[in-house]
Amino acid sequence: MKQQQTVPTVPIFGIPVSRLNMQQTVAWLTEAVDSGRPHQIITANPIMVMKALEEPAYMKVMLGGELLVPDGTGVVWAANVAGMPVAERVPGFDLMHELFKVGETRGWKVYLLGSTLEVIQATAARIKELYPGIVICGIRDGFFGPDQDDEVIEAIREAKADLLFVARGADTQEPWIARHKERLGVPVMMGVGGSFDVISGKTKRAPVAFQKLRLEWFYRLLKEPSRYKRMLALPKFAVKVLRARENVTKMG
């Protein structure tokens, strides 16, 4: 079996963020699927970095991921400030679609977990429409507690998925995948936040103008003002990066 290439990373306050571009990331994940070994992919953003710095248990989750992609604009900016730029931003939403494209040609099986039953059913239907070669091998809404974990894990194992996408919110989805990674045994597992809402058509992604200006976070805040408390981590992160500047890549 071919050995997977080592991922070049930049440590953002001790968290190793991938410097691969989108194309290289997809190639690495294709090898991950071929390997059959479980890999947790984490879409790193400033809110998650700040949470990890404040909560040792969350830091452990972040450090345990096999690949942390620079999903947040702030993470890309921090790498630039530190003098170790990443190749480009790798948004989790776009990465998921790139994996679907490859999966079409390879007959990959995909399991969707999270959100409401209505949203996840609509998401599965839309993925089949966009990528007919993809096999949706199972869906399950995200409304289950720890007492049902065994049942959910067993269903995913039986489905023999190549890709598992989990939409249960950043506070829940990454720790859940980390906790059960070996038992789940899926080659590529990734938390995708609100992506199912966008794919299903329940919500809209930020317009291209916002994406180009790297202001998707601001668009989400405008649409969901209740997110403001979480967003307070962004200025805190920016201040921390600017104060640390020379030490961003040296600090844990």
Short key terms for the protein model shown above:
transferase, teichoic acid biosynthesis, 252 residues, N-acetylglucosaminyldiphosphoundecaprenol N-acetyl-beta-D-mannosaminyltransferase, six-stranded parallel beta sheet
Give me a quick take on this structure.
The chain has 252 residues and is an alpha/beta fold.
Mind describing the biggest β-sheet?
6 strands, parallel
Extended strand count: 8
What is the quaternary state of this protein?
single chain
Q: Which series of helices and strands comes N to C?
A: EEHEHHEHHEHEHEHEHHHHH
Q: What is the overall pLDDT average?
A: 89
- State the strand order across the main sheet: 4-3-8-7-5-6
Identify the overall geometry: globular
Q: Which regions are unreliable across 5 or more consecutive residues at pLDDT < 50?
A: none
What do these coordinates show?
This protein is of the alpha/beta class and 252 residues long. It has 13 helices and eight strands. It has helices spanning 22-35, 46-54, 56-64, 73-81, 92-106, 117-130, 149-159, 170-184, 195-200, 208-212, 216-223, 228-231, 233-244, and strands at 9-12, 15-18, 40-44, 67-70, 109-114, 135-140, 163-167, 188-191. A six-stranded parallel β-sheet has the order 4-3-8-7-5-6, with helices on both faces. Strands 1-2 form a two-stranded antiparallel ribbon. A hairpin with a 2-residue loop joins strand 1 and strand 2. The model has no long low-confidence stretch (mean pLDDT 89).
